[in-house]
Every structure is written in C-alpha cells, then in structure tokens.
Design goal:
The chain is α+β, with helices and mostly antiparallel strands. The protein folds into two domains: about 60 residues; about 90 residues, 3-Layer(aba) Sandwich (Glutaredoxin). Helices cover about 45% and strands about 10% of the residues. The chain has a five-stranded mixed β-sheet with strand order 2-3-1-4-5, with helices on one face. Helix 1 packs antiparallel against helix 2 and helix 3 packs across helix 4. The radius of gyration is 21 Å and the shape is globular. The N and C termini lie far apart (about 45 Å).
Length: about 190
Amino acid sequence: MADGGKLSPFELRYRSLDKIIEKYGDRPGGLIRVLQKAQDLFGYLSREVQIYVADKMCLPIAHVHGVATFYSGFVTAPRGKYTCSICMGTACYVKGAQDVLDRFKKVLGIGEDETTEDRLFTLRATRCIGACSLAPVLAVNEDVHGHVTVDEVAPLIESYRAQETREDGDRIADEPDRPRADQGAAPPPY
Ligand code: FES
C-alpha cells in the first residue's frame, strides 16, 4: 500500500479489477469481460495480470493465457501510444496490404506485434476491419485510413510523430514553473 494508507494508482487498478471479477466472474463469458476490463485498466495483459486473474477466478493459468492470446483484441505486451493495425483481410490483401505492411516494418524498424523503442508505435496485422471498399485499409488507433499506398506510409507515420512533438511542446508551455526562452531564462552554465 502507498504511504499514508492511500492506495497507489496501481493498487487502485487491482481493486477495480476485483470488482469486475466479483461481478462477472461466475457468468458465462465472464473471463472475456474480466480480461477486457484488465486490459482497459493496465493497457495490456501482462503475465502478472493473467496470473492474478487466474488466481482470483480459480482457473488454470494456461486457460487464461490461452484466451488472452487467442483473441486478436487482447494484447499481452506493452503497446506504443499509436497502434498501427494493417488489415490483412482478403480485400485488402489483394489490393497490396502486404506491401503496405512491409513498408511500415521498414520505416518503423520493427516487426509485427512489436513496439518502437520510444514506445510511440506498435505494429499489428489484423483481420478485416469492415471497411473493405476502402482497401487497402489501416487504422492508427481509431483513425481509419483507406486506399493507402506504400508511398503514403512514411508521411503518415511522420504526421503522427509531428503530432506527438506538438503535444510535447504544448505540455512544456503549460508547465508554469518551467522557464521559457521568452521569459528571460538564465543561460545554461557553459
Ligand atoms: S478486408 Fe480489409 S477492411 Fe475488409
């Protein structure tokens, strides 16, 4: 428990998970609901979280792990801020989705289900996402991009990087105690 008897944010997440387990643990399909909530709370289903769920629900860890790795909606490793999901369904595949995926791998320098070192991008190949008329299709988090060509991949990634840089700039500007160049901050000691 955190200092002063207060629960840490991490402990609070486990408390929330306990409530979901209490509510759905005995219901049909309860494990799926519990794992969905666990993923919402922790960002992904780590080994520790899977063991915790198995323990609390009196299930074999192999069963929980099997469910966590079977459904494409679950992730068992930390994700980047932006998840790039390339549709590899039939319509997208015949329109060049493999080339688009390969270009993502090349530009990001990672493979499928991997995350860039700066934790900005995770790359995934997915099944049909229901926008076949726009094939080839990909999604970056909730943003769907259709008729994507390989040449558009690098600029697309760059646009998300630029967005990140802008958000970082805004955060720094909003920090009241941080000296800014236009406020006559002291020069560095060199
Ligand atoms: S096959 Fe890609 S959106 Fe349907």
